[in-house]
Write a structure and sequence with these properties.
By secondary structure, this protein is of the alpha+beta class. The chain is built from 15 helices and 21 strands. It folds into 2 domains: 12-138; 202-488, DD-peptidase/beta-lactamase superfamily (Beta-lactamase), CATH 3.40.710. It has helices at residues 12-23, 30-49, 52-62, 71-81, 146-162, 208-220, 239-242, 247-251, 263-269, 275-285, 305-319, 323-332, 385-396, 403-409, 473-486; strands at residues 84-94, 97-104, 110-117, 125-131, 140-141, 168-174, 177-184, 186-188, 193-194, 201-202, 341-342, 356-358, 364-366, 381-383, 414-418, 422-426, 431-435, 438-447, 450-457, 462-468, 487-488. The strands form 6 sheets. The chain has an 8-stranded antiparallel sheet with strand order 7-6-20-19-18-17-16-15, with helices on both faces. Helix 1 (12-23) packs across helix 2 (30-49), helix 3 (52-62) crosses helix 4 and helix 10 packs across helix 11.
């Protein structure tokens, strides 16, 4: 391994030095300094034991009282990644927290435990949590041997299938040529129906790219402008909000219109069967918005499904076509996406994988009770890995929108977060991510029993599409593939 990336367990002296440089000298003896490293080893050992009683004891002994009740949280992290191997301590800091870098022995994902120690004795751990999807700083970029990379990824997918960590399909393409097209596990666990290349999966928020594409097409036709206030197209929307919020705000998660923290709203929208019902439900609960009476634009990123639902309703009003019909005709048909569409709970959809989520008992359960009556512009359409690949190609080759429009929607409009290793920005319905300088665009989606990742890496020419009927599993696989293709790890 090149650079300052440290593998294996560090010796005590090295770790104490790292911690010393990180948080300053301890107001304690050298024996106390040594104990600061011991808690890291003790934490990793306790986490790897998957013993809740042991974790509770450690939390009481080493952590601030605010974290004494978080044993179930760590049990959940273990369900996601399994056991981890300690790589380094204090190598990186993010948002003022030191990072314990580990790597999952099952998923081979990097897992960052971010913590902060108290400034004075007793030196309890004041803050502790997991940062997912990141990599240690200083990893060397590489140009992979395509055949070797494909073999390694295929072998890894078989391992995850054996461990029952992943179920779904994976498509990896390089400069338009498909390198990997693999399906693992079952679309129906009870009857052992296997996933295959034609299996359809619910893709959660990856749907947002479709809604954003419809808006972009209407902008090209001169029927919309990103700077239009939504009241221009929705005259019955409360004017003190509708006159301030623009389509730009809806598509960049910067409108501040967030209703999904309201339990009754969530129950209501789960039952709607068309966009008119969805919009009327939105209007009904809008007065419960926290700052409804003195609404002001937040002018910052705050992820909200409601913004995209409004954008979809505007597509319907402006185009004069039912939203679902519009996408079918102007996006899916034009993009040769024959296996993509909107989900309806009471209709049989051929080759649709059944979703499974991890229950508290570790048992995978059907996600039926979490499914909506129908898809919405913000999420839960279905697609296949092939169709999403065709969608990516149709965006890039000018089939769905002009080149200048494509460049605009995939250009940064707002920043969601920045740290020393990575950043995430947002265009118009497209996520823009940077990991140690590796740029990508696309969108992720996750909900109980469903997961999706569509990642396009312009510099290296790779497209990675992962669809799953397990929640969180798509991200685990997509991150592994990203790292394997682009960074020197072994």
């Amino acid at each position: 391994m090149k650079g300052n990336y440290i593998t294996g367990f560090l010796n005590t002296t090295t770790v104490v030095l790292m911690l010393f440089l990180l948080i300053g000298p301890f107001n304690s003896s050298s024996q106390a300094q040594k104990s600061q490293y011991e808690w890291v080893n003790e934490f990793i050992s306790t986490y790897n034991s998957h013993d809740q009683a042991r974790m509770k004891s450690l939390l009481l002994d080493k952590f601030h009282k605010a974290y004494h009740g978080t044993a179930k949280y760590w049990q959940g992290v273990y369900k996601e990644f399994g056991q981890v191997k300690l790589l380094s301590v204090g190598k990186d800091t993010i948002n003022g927290r030191a990072i314990i870098w580990t790597r999952s022995t099952n998923t081979e994902n990097f897992v960052a435990f971010a913590y902060k120690l108290a400034k004075s004795a007793p030196l309890k751990i004041n803050r502790m949590g997991v940062i997912r999807g990141m990599i240690p700083s200083g990893l060397t970029r590489k140009v992979p041997d395509l055949e070797q990379a494909a073999e390694r990824i295929n072998t890894h997918l078989e391992k995850l299938e054996h461990l029952d960590v992943f179920s779904g399909t994976v498509l990896v393409a390089h400069k338009g040529q498909i390198l990997i097209n693999k399906a693992v596990n079952f679309s129906e666990r009870q009857t052992k129906i296997p996933n295959d290349a034609n299996t359809r999966f619910l893709i959660a928020s990856t749907t947002k790219m479709f809604t954003a594409t419809a808006i972009a097409q209407l902008v090209e036709r001169g029927l919309l402008n990103y700077n239009d206030p939504i009241s221009k197209h929705l005259p019955d929307y409360p004017a003190h909000i509708g006159s301030k919020v623009t389509i730009h705000h809806l598509l960049t998660h910067s409108s501040g219109i967030e209703l999904d923290e309201i339990g009754a709203y969530n129950k209501s929208i789960a039952r709607v069967s068309n966009l008119e019902e969805l919009y009327q439900t939105h209007l009904k609960y809008l007065p419960k918005l926290k700052n409804y009476d003195n609404y002001k634009l937040p002018e910052e990123f705050n992820y909200t499904n409601e913004g995209f639902d409004l954008a979809g309703y505007i597509v319907q009003k402006v185009s004069g076509e039912d939203f679902f019909d519009y996408l079918a005709k102007h996006v899916f048909e034009k993009g040769s996406m024959d296996n993509t569409g909107d989900f309806e709970l009471d209709k049989e959809i051929a080759n649709l994988a059944r979703g499974y989520y991890s229950s508290k008992s570790d048992e995978r359960k059907l996600n039926t009770r979490h499914l909506p009556a129908r898809s919405r512009p913000a999420g839960s359409f279905y697609s296949t890995s092939h169709d999403l690949f065709r969608f990516v190609q149709s965006l890039q080759n000018g089939t769905l929108m002009k080149q200048e429009t494509f460049e605009r929607v995939t250009s940064s409009q707002i920043t969601s977060y920045v740290n020393p290793i990575s950043s995430s920005k947002y265009g118009y319905g497209f996520s823009l991510n940077s990991m140690s300088g590796l740029e990508s665009w696309g969108h992720a989606g996750v909900a109980p029993g469903m997961g999706a990742r569509c990642d396009v890496y312009p510099e290296s020419g790779f497209t990675v599409i992962v669809l799953s009927n397990y929640d969180k599993a798509a991200a685990i696989v997509a991150n592994y593939i990203r790292d394997t293709l682009h960074f020197q790890i072994h």
